[in-house]
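Homework help board

Subject: predicted structure for assignment chain

Our instructor gave us this sequence and asked us to write out the predicted structure in token form, then describe one feature. I got the tokens but I'm not sure how to describe them. Can anyone check?
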Amino acid sequence: MDKIILSSLSESDIRNLVKEGVMEVLSNGDFKQSSKQEPEYVDIDGASRILMKSKQNIYTLVGKRQVPYYKQGKKLYFKSEELLKWLGQGRRKTVDEIRHGTDEFLARKGKFSRTG
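My token output:
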């Protein structure tokens, strides 16, 4: 945005400038939704909510060291960001993605070309 001297603008001009600025920030995604954002560290209840798993299931994952966690004394803590990243690592390819990858691999090897 350009620098503008506000004293020479009318109230409606200022409102429009503010509205344009807000719209620009929203369209660029340059903001954080603090009201809906999870805290950086959560306890077992927070981890259960984020992963949509029972507390017992979370304790089992911790015992097997399959989920990232922190321990302070007897209490477990989890970073929300790490839990979401861990959850995303479990993504499986669709049948179409597997077929496409296979077709690309075989085409590079010059052995096969699927039609349709």
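Reply (TA_rk): Your tokens look well-formed. For the description, you could write something like this. The two ends are 50 Å apart (CA to CA). That's the kind of observation they're looking for.
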